[in-house]
Specification:
Blueprint (H helix, E strand, L loop, with lengths): L1 H11 L57 H9 L18 H11 L25 H9 L5 H4 L16 H11 L3 H6 L18 H9 L19 H10 L11 E9 L3 E6 L4 E5 L5 E4 L16 E7 L2 E9 L4 E11 L5 E6 L2 E6 L5 E3 L5 E2 L9 E7 L7 E8 L4 E11 L4 E5 L5 E14 L2 E3 L10 E7 L2 E9 L3 E11 L4 E6 L5 E13 L20 E6 L4 E7 L5 E12 L4 E5 L5 E13 L10 H4 L5 E7 L2 E7 L2 E10 L4 E6 L4 E13 L16 E6 L6 E18 L4 E5 L5 E5 L4 E3 L16 E7 L2 E7 L3 E9 L4 E6 L4 E5 L5 E4 L2 E3 L10 E6 L5 E5 L2 E10 L4 E4 L10 E12 L2 E2 L10 E7 L2 E7 L1
Helix pairs in contact: 1-6, 1-9, 2-9, 3-4, 6-8
């Protein structure tokens, strides 16, 4: 019996550490001494079984959905290891010694060895409530408890049974269960490495040493053992539950095996006992996985995976995915023939003929997943035979046709292109989608031109095709929205609207008209324009052109441009006539480059033209160049350095910073140097600190810093936009409104894609990067609105179902805030399941979860013209019955999307508000 006790406590026990698990073992939800009544003689002790008609955490009214131990409490309650008290579990109550012993006996399924009818009397002073006496008596008989210790007079100054179980007390029982008492006695004089070693009882020291040696405990935070620390009921339940992986204890209502059939309402299980178990699935069924403690949706459970099922009243009360791997094996080969018996077929696989048996339950599918009959299989079709691997019979479950020798012609619209694997998906006139394999030597035509690659076919192209032996051999694009061509750019003119290029694989120049709006994409250049392209007979850009059906170029993308970035070069001289710039690097090596008409000039002020260069580039001027071969793409006079401030020496009037490229620079400044900080007037050097990111802008002479701008980020709400003036007004959290000039400012959406001023709308949240008082970047902030489904406090994660019905897992940052009614909490457990929330990142990237206000009322009517939503008054004096709703208000019932017109007077609705406007209406 001690062997079983080893299993019990090894797995349930002392992972003494981390939040929510400090010695996480739990007791049965039986009563304490205060609950003992006259009916304890019947063994009920005023306890109640869990309400098995409810789901998961609803088994007990005080265990909320999403509670960290919900899985473990649900499992053990349905296994009848733990019971409730008047519908409650009391998860945070400390465990008493009699409760701990009782749960251990139940967990080991030893109640059958207990004589509940016998009259039990312990010695005077050893007080145990009547209900628990049979359990305690059995524990003494099984060697779990030692009478000399537990019944010693000094041990029973208080009632033994209602005494709270301490950590060292359970450790002692554990080591005895492991038959390691001799080792414990030998280690009685050895000190542990715990900081509170002196607090461990001398009689328990050896047991703690053995538990440490066997790695049964690692202690608590701060390297403490806390020998007299208490254990909560939810903690103890978690460890008994987690012990399932290490025990062979069987319960009458628990089965484990592989799902052989699964529908929305039924589950069939091929059990490890070799029997088939059938269960009904209901709305009360709780679903979990072995690798997580959070509840999952029913869709997570898949057929032919390994699960554990706990039965209650003929239903599956609890389903846990033990192994998500599908327990099927694949056998591929060419179908040869169906036998006359109608229950066998032969396949040629790896040069061997293999015959398979099948029955009426076997499913046959064609290439598109449609069900067919076995007699529909065509000889020489490539098929995949899937057999189960769990029963020893290797029954054929599914036969999937991978490809079949087909000869046909057809037409349709392309829905997907996989050039790498040589396949197309095509939808025909009857809206049936089919996957076609294209031969590597297929002829692909578009307007009498032979296309070289399948990648030139686009989604939504209309095609006609011929199939021979299962592969497309001829394909013609009869209608297209666009096509792509790759080549070398020779010449381009936005004025004459012409682009000349040599197509890849050809030597003959081709000409196309430019569309009215041409998108230009060049890596490293935001908002690239036609003037950024390099055209040349020999060294022009390699480009990919997107050509519309009317033969106009709508997009030009530069492919593989090999540009070089040259920093901190000194000008030797500029030849205005030849447009040649000579520069020298730090090692005094000279370089000569061509300045072109399309060279971008950046001198930090105004618009600079080529005719201005001679006067702006005197000898020794510092410049940065971006070059392609011998040609300068961008020429920038060094007028600023951005980086992190390392030091500020007011005596020598120098500052040192490290640039983003890792270069350390020491720069001079003087008393005329000005400082700019966003939101501050009359800023001085005292507003700049070591570690700040700054922009040190040089004077035109490049000898000293004339201006220092502090880099900062703020979060704002868009107040208004002015597209004509390229301005954006934003409002701070304090209510201040600021106008931003967006000339040269990078504008991004939530995914980082470049957008325009017109893409912003009032009310949107944005992060703004400033250099001093000047905006450099404006980016939309991702806002997630939805309902909290689960709370994982151990891993600091939330699951939120958003307004599209999708469940999103959100990992909180290390510095997060929960905001409810303007109060801020840094405890994730201040959230509750079903809370409506807004989740976003602040300007520093920290997670902010704001709990939204909600109100449950009865619907009256609404006005679409004024966006007013009326509810029935609670009383004649109730004036809070009209609310504004947003135009895209989310209306639903459960996961079903509704519209406002579907609401009827008197419907109970839950209203969710954001900024005093209804953003969600849930019909109850």
């Amino acid at each position: 019996m001690k062997t079983k006790l080893i299993t019990l406590f090894l797995t349930a026990v002392l992972v003494m550490g981390s939040a929510g698990s400090a010695f996480a073992a739990v007791t049965p939800a039986d009563s304490s001494a205060n609950n003992t009544t006259s009916n304890t003689n019947s063994g009920s002790n005023n306890t109640t079984s869990p309400n098995t008609s409810n789901n998961g955490s609803s088994l007990f009214s005080d265990v909320t959905k999403g509670f960290w131990a919900e899985k473990h409490i649900t499992k053990l309650a349905l296994e009848k290891v733990l019971l409730g008290n008047n519908g409650k579990f009391r998860p945070n109550d400390p465990v008493t010694q009699q409760e701990a012993v009782t749960m251990a006996i139940r967990y080991m399924n030893l109640e059958k060895d207990m004589d509940s009818s016998a009259s039990i009397a312990f010695q005077s002073g050893f007080v145990v409530d009547n209900y628990f006496k049979p359990y305690v008596k059995l524990a003494f008989e099984k060697g779990l408890l030692d009478k000399n210790e537990e019944m010693a007079p000094e041990a029973n100054k208080n009632a033994w049974g209602s005494k709270k179980a301490s950590r060292e007390w359970i450790t002692k029982i554990l080591v005895r269960a492991l038959n390691k008492e001799a080792d414990a006695k030998a280690a009685m004089t050895t000190a542990t490495t715990f900081a509170d070693n002196s607090k461990i009882s001398s009689s328990s020291l050896g047991y703690v040493n053995v538990a440490l040696k066997l790695k049964l405990t690692t202690g608590m935070e701060g390297n403490k053992f806390e020998p007299q620390g208490n254990v909560t009921r939810s903690q103890l339940a978690a460890f008994f539950s987690r012990g399932d992986a290490h025990t062979s204890i069987q319960y009458d209502n628990v089965a484990q095996g592989v799902i052989t059939s699964l529908t929305d309402t039924n589950l069939s299980l091929y059990g490890e006992d070799g029997k088939v178990h059938n269960y009904a699935l209901t709305g009360s069924t709780a679903y979990f996985t072995a690798d997580s403690e959070a509840a999952v949706s029913a869709s997570t459970v898949q057929a032919y995976t390994k699960v554990k099922v706990i039965e209650t009243q003929g239903n599956a009360g609890y389903v846990e995915v033990i192994d998500p791997k599908v327990q099927l094996e694949s056998n591929e080969g060419k179908f040869q023939r169906l036998h006359a018996t109608g229950s066998k077929f032969t396949v040629l696989s790896n040069d061997d003929y293999v015959t398979f048996d099948f029955d009426s339950a076997t499913v046959f599918l064609d290439q598109n997943g449609k069900t067919i009959s076995a007699k529909d299989l065509v000889p020489d079709s490539m098929i995949d035979v899937k057999r189960e691997t769990f029963s020893g019979q290797h029954k054929v479950i599914v036969v999937q046709v991978k490809s079949a020798p087909i000869n046909k012609s057809g037409a349709g619209i392309v829905t997907a292109v996989d050039a790498k694997n040589g396949t197309l998906k095509v939808k025909d006139g009857s809206n049936t989608e089919e996957t076609l394999t294209v031969s590597s030597d297929a002829i692909i035509l578009y307007q009498d031109q032979v296309l070289k690659s399948l990648s030139e076919i686009k989604v939504n192209d209309v095609i006609s095709y011929s199939v021979k032996n299962g592969q497309v051999t001829n394909l013609e694009i009869t209608q297209t929205s666009s096509r792509t061509v790759r080549g070398t750019l020779i010449n381009i003119s936005s004025s004459s609207k012409l682009v000349t290029y040599v197509k890849e694989g050809s030597s003959k120049p081709e000409v196309n008209l430019l569309a009215d709006q041409v998108e230009v994409v060049v890596d490293g250049i935001q908002d690239a324009k036609i003037t950024d392209l390099v055209s040349d007979d020999t060294n022009g850009d390699v480009i990919e052109l997107t050509i519309t059906p009317d033969d106009r170029v709508s997009k030009i993308q530069v492919v593989g441009r090999k540009v070089e970035q040259l920093q901190e070069l000194s000008v030797v001289g500029y030849n205005k006539k030849q447009q040649i710039l000579t520069v020298m690097n730090a090692k005094e090596k000279a370089f000569v480059f061509n300045v072109k008409e399309n060279t971008k000039l950046d001198f930090g002020v105004g618009n600079t033209t080529l005719k201005d260069l001679e006067g702006l580039l005197p000898e020794k001027t510092k410049v940065n160049l971006t070059v392609l071969g011998d040609n300068i793409l961008t020429l920038q006079k060094v007028y600023k350095y951005d980086g992190k401030l390392l030091s500020l020496n007011t005596s020598s009037q120098t500052l040192t910073l490290v640039t983003d490229a890792g270069q350390t620079m020491t720069l001079s400044y003087d008393g005329t140097t000005v400082v700019f900080v966003h939101g501050k007037t009359n800023s001085t050097l005292s507003n700049i600190k070591v570690g700040d990111t700054i922009s040190a802008q040089l004077r035109t002479t490049q000898d000293k810093v004339g201006r220092i701008s502090l880099k900062s980020t703020g979060q704002f709400e868009v107040y208004s936009t002015d597209v004509a003036k390229n301005k954006l007004s934003v409002k701070s959290s304090e209510g201040y409104i600021e106008s931003l000039d967006l000339e040269g400012v990078t504008l991004l959406n939530e995914t980082g894609a470049v957008i325009k001023v017109s893409d912003f709308t009032p009310g949107q949240v944005v992060n703004v990067n400033f250099s001093g008082n000047v905006a450099e970047l404006v980016r939309k902030v991702t806002l997630t609105y939805g309902k909290v489904e689960t709370i994982d406090s151990a891993n600091q994660k939330l699951t939120v179902k958003d307004f599209t019905g999708q469940s999103k897992e959100i990992k909180l940052t290390s510095s997060y805030q929960i905001v409810r009614n303007n109060s801020i909490s840094t405890n994730i457990n201040s959230l509750s399941a079903n809370d409506r929330v807004e989740v976003k990142s602040d300007a520093n990237g920290n997670t902010i979860v704001r709990v939204l206000d909600s109100l449950s009322r009865k619907f009256n009517r609404y006005s679409a013209s004024t966006n007013d939503f009326y509810v029935q008054r609670a009383s004649l004096t109730d004036n809070n019955f009209v609310f504004k709703f947003v135009t895209n208000v989310y209306v639903h019932k459960g996961d079903t999307l509704l519209n406002l017109q579907s609401l009827a007077e008197g419907d109970q609705v839950l209203l969710v508000f954001n900024n005093n406007q209804i953003i969600e209406i849930e019909k109850q």
